[in-house]
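ERR on first pass: missing label on line 2. Operator R.T. fixed the label and resubmitted. Corrected input:
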Amino acid sequence: MSALLLRDLRKTYGNRLEALKGVDLEIPEGEFFALLGPNGAGKSTLISIVSSLVNKTSGRVEVCGYDLDRDREAAKRCIGLVPQEVNFNQFEKVANIVINQAGYYGIPRREAIVRAERCLRQVDLWDKRNVVSRQLSGGMKRRLMIARALVHDPRLLILDEPTAGVDIEIRHSMWEFLRSVNRRGTTVILTTHYLEEAENLCRHIAIIDHGRIVVNRRMQELLAEVQTQRYTLELKYPISQVPVIEGYAVEREDAYTLIAEVPPEGGVHGLFTRLAAQGIEVQGIRNGSSRLEQYFMRLIAESGDRDGAGAAA
Amino acid sequence: MRKRGWSGTGQWIALQTILFKEIGRFFRIWPQTILPAAVTNALYLLIFGALMGQRIGPIHGIAYLDYIVPGIALMSVITNAYSNVVSSFYSTKFQRHIEELITAPVSEWAVLAGYVGGGVVRGLVVGAVVVATAGFFTQLQVAHAGVLLAMGTLTAALFALAGFINAVYANSFDDISIVPNFVLTPLVYLGGVFYSIELLPSWWRTVSMGNPILYMVNAFRYGFVGVSDVRLDVAFALIGGLIVLLLTWAYVLLRRGTGIKS
Ligand SMILES: Nc1ncnc2c1ncn2[C@@H]1O[C@H](COP(=O)(O)OP(=O)(O)O)[C@@H](O)[C@H]1O
Ligand SMILES: [Mg+2]
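pass 2 clean. output:
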């Protein structure tokens, strides 16, 4: 069964802005899924529709087999949401936020207290249980929202940019925690605009841009496809013409600089040899941007070309 | 059918959670929520009742102080029930933790009952404090406890609902004080809290009969002293009708997500 199924999902906001332009997505149970996209791509809109915070304009949403229109209550019980921005009562004590959340999901108070303790311990906030939540640091607030999202044991945990603005160390421990949640069988979907995060954590990735899914595939496949590396070569002597070298895409940036794309089967050594054969001597070499990042940039550029209106934004 | 069973219990627990949270909130900030009403009303009782009241004759054979205590108490019920819900629900919206309730499987009825219930409890608690304060100034009697409790509770529920609707439409903190200051206060003061409408010129009496609060004040007063300017059945029918109206309105707003969802 799919943890999440979207069919032709569309959203036009009141100001006539088309935030989602027909999204199809199917995420099987147990998956660790990244929804990657630049700011304004429509990630939060998608997440908010799935979690009932925003009304869709058209299309179909199914959560763990429950249709959001026909079986909203059952669908909601399957979801744990960690929103992009803090949305708990900042004047409430940490423990009460989690205990009340359990109450909203119909969990009797006695059990709610037990569960809240378990969840707060998991995210290392048990010591802070009696602190007024306003006084927590940014990272702690995020962890509080994770504890809150897990208190009713959701089958699907959705996190909207969970590590935005969180420092590296905490980010890594949060990743570790999310992996353990996923290992226990919970489907995890996160949105991010950090490539590294998607690359490190997720087994499947979809890239969303201007309200459309432009890539949707297994992370491994994607990585294999983009293993073509990009290098900047600094030359000893100026050249006037772009050298043609079979198996490599080479561009001339200026008289002393070449940009070369090296496929995994070719290798840098082969490139150097062939350049030398044409009398071109390389003095220095710099690594280009990361593989996925490059791919990501290219996709954004391409989809911008296809979607003339979006390119300007 | 098992699902329906879960749903019933689950909704009940969710409702309790919201209600206890709401009650806890106003008790925690009692110097802002309970104390002011006690102080203001003690002053009313002192000035209008104990000091000036001796120069004002009895109304319907009832000492002036005893005549105005029920109205003053109900005035507190109205303003406190209203302001509890309007400020609590507006700040829930403003701080965005309304999102907790929207994403959770809580029915609109449970949300409404939780917030309105909190307002009713605050209204009744403050009303009771005012009546207790009045005990220092006069020997109060209760003629019809049932009418008293029923009218007190229904009035609190009606104005808690009105506060909820105000909060849904409000976009700023100014918006939550306009209705209490410019609609509620005049209606309450002109609703026969301090006088019997029989003392008014006839045209003004007719106008007053269009003020719903007049009916509530009189029915509530009847619970204490046993006299009323209006018929009780009319008063109960009116408040019942208004509650049904506002309840439907509030439900539709929540269901649509007005002021909450885009
Ligand atoms: N409530 C709203 N009203 C109008 N436009 C909105 C609203 N929320 C988001 N948008 C617009 O929809 C687009 C997608 O936004 P969003 O889903 O927040 O993107 P992301 O989360 O990927 O950064 C943006 O252009 C944004 O300005
Ligand atoms: Mg976003």
